[in-house]
Write a structure and sequence with these properties.
The protein is mainly alpha-helical and 297 residues long. It contains 12 helices and 3 strands, in the order H-H-H-H-H-H-H-E-E-E-H-H-H-H-H. The chain has 2 domains: 93 residues, DNA polymerase, domain 1; 172 residues, Orthogonal Bundle (hpI Integrase, Chain A). The protein has a 3-stranded antiparallel β-sheet with strand order 1-2-3, with no helix packed on it. The protein starts with a helix and ends in a 13-residue tail after the last helix.
């Protein structure tokens, strides 16, 4: 069996496993270059550990970030583990080291910056302006991903109790809160949007909004601002602000609630937001018991 046929079978298996379109797309994006490197028509059973090392070595010379390189290698390891379980090949995926990605510092927007984001959003049609503001609000205040924005349906919204049903990674459902500001934007959007669609967000032609369209909108908005903006940063702000607000009110953070709201599968992914939030809280407070005591002299 050729390398290309093996890869095609891998993709077919993942599709039959009912993985999300985004996950399948990632497999295709990050593994296909590896197949091209090996040779699409080459007998897959003739691929050696040295070939794999050679590809990773070649990747080290490419002008890509460590985070991107790690993503490529992680996907290749998934493919090789699958191939090892399905065919008469033995590759030691454990020997393929995934370089650690540098820790990204989460940028927390100030109240002034958040206001500037919303004020900067302006389109030729009032309903498009409202739509784009609502998208940003749901990312910032409910922690939604781009794909979750695009797949959101009107029937999943409960305005009376201010809740949204979200379909996240792996087609898993969760319910997230809807802030008062987001609820007002939703009501206004329902009133202004000229199209009747099952999907919440539609294009100017009434078709379901694509992830590429949302990404383009956020990028265009970011270019108009004096600070960095992305859908990931908005979602990260939701998580960090959630931790800060909970700690301020209750002197503790329910990290499992945050894990659910974010749609995370791994608690460690959620825990990094808690650590960063505590750093912010510590930087804002001056904790000195001695300062509370009146000393003479």
């Amino acid at each position: 069996m050729t390398c290309q046929q093996t890869f095609d079978n891998f993709i077919l298996t993942k599709r039959l496993a009912d993985l999300s379109v985004k996950t399948i797309s990632n497999y295709e994006q990050f593994i296909a270059p590896f197949i091209d490197f090996l040779g699409a028509d080459r007998d897959f059973e003739r691929v050696t550990q040295e070939d794999i090392v050679a590809y990773i070595s070649a990747m080290l010379t490419r002008p890509i970030s460590k985070a991107t390189r790690s993503t490529y290698i992680r996907h290749i390891k998934i493919f090789l583990r699958w191939a090892g379980s399905e065919y008469d090949v033995s590759y030691d995926a454990k020997k393929i080291k995934v370089p650690k990605s540098p820790k990204r510092q989460v940028r927390i927007y100030s109240d002034v910056e958040v206001s500037e984001i919303f004020q900067t959003i302006s389109c030729e049609s009032p309903w498009l302006t409202c739509r784009n503001r609502l998208i940003i609000a749901l990312m910032y205040d409910s922690g939604l991903r781009q794909n979750e924005i695009c797949t959101m349906k009107r029937a999943w919204i409960s305005l009376d109790v201010r809740r949204l049903k979200v379909r996240g990674k792996g087609d898993k459902e969760r319910t997230v809160p809807l802030g008062a500001t987001s609820a007002r934007l939703l009501e206004k959007y329902f009133m202004l949007c000229p199209f009747d669609s099952d999907y919440l967000f539609v294009s100017r032609h009434g078709e379901p909004l694509t992830c590429d369209a949302v990404k383009h909108m956020v990028t265009k908005l970011a270019n108009q601002l004096p600070f960095e903006l992305s859908s990931h940063k908005l979602r990260h702000n939701f998580a960090t602000n959630y931790c800060i607000d909970q700690f301020t009110r209750n002197n503790q953070v329910d990290i499992y609630s945050l894990m659910y709201l974010m749609g995370h599968e791994n608690i460690e992914t959620t825990r990094r937001y808690l650590h960063f939030a505590m750093e912010i809280i510590a930087s804002r407070e001056t904790i000195s018991h001695l300062d509370t005591i009146a000393l003479c002299g």
